[in-house]
Amino acid sequence: MIYFTHAIAQVFFFFSLFLTVKNEDQSFKFVDSFAERDSINYEPINKSQKVIHILVALCDNKYQGIVPVPKAIGNGQDPKNNLYWGCAYGVKTYFKKSANWKLITTELLDSIKMERLVFKHVSQESYVVADAYNGKYIKECTIDFLKSCSGQLKETITVGNKVLGINGNSNLLGYIGHDGLMDFTIDEEIKNIDKNKRDCIILACYSKSFFSSFIGKTNANPLVWTTGLMAPEAYTIHDAINQYCNGGSESVIIEAAARAYAKYQKCSEKSAKRLLVAGW
User: Fold this and answer.
1) Which of 97, 103, 171, 265 has the most CB atoms lying inside 10 A of its own CB?
2) What is the pLDDT of residue 47?
3) pLDDT per residue over 219-242, tens digit each?
4) Is the pLDDT of residue 183 over 70?
């Protein structure tokens, strides 16, 4: 009886302690199931800021079905010198030189996502998070992009005192790289799970043709994608994002993207507008 009474007292003690902690911190919530934990993760994160998350499949002569580029810039395991990352018009170098964006963090992740950069807009609460995927894992990059568009993949990161929602928690998703859907199929189910409509930009050859069946299932809104062969370099998404952060309309965003592409590819804006299109 003494042991039974002691056990009851312990139960009441820990229950009282739980109530005390809960009252002192109203943000505390006890999660007793994976389903409830998932529902908490679906709460909107970026209420006071815009977050653009760009997934870059590094150019890779060995593991991708591309027309080979010079060896030094076509090594998908070397972000520093890669065509889509470290070269002059790669995401890392181009955004670092931008007057609109300031690099605030650099992080080496793992053998698949090799490097992550976070840029902050110089005059707005807008952030660009860019991930460099090992070119060997272009399929994983493509799946992560699609699952982010659908809300199946959601993450957060902490930068200083800011919590930023990335992947499916971001406001705009971007993909840059070879169109791997020309080379492989995706058997995993891609479907929207939260009824949210996210904006996306897909800079890859013939991306409208090859991505459309998946993007339709994600419920995402394609702000910029392509109708033909193209060079998926950073200036296009950079100028599109600038207009997006300024609250520009779909037509203003596509105009900025086409103008940048025409400038650097030395083609007419009319040709660039036929290549870079919005919507369905």
Assistant:
1) 171
2) 74
3) 999 999 999 999 999 999 999 999
4) yes
Give how far the C-alpha of residue 244 lies from the chain's centroid of Cα atoms, to the nearest Å.
Answer: 15
Report if pTM > 0.90.
no
Cα 239 to Cα 174: distance, rounded to the nearest angstrom: 13
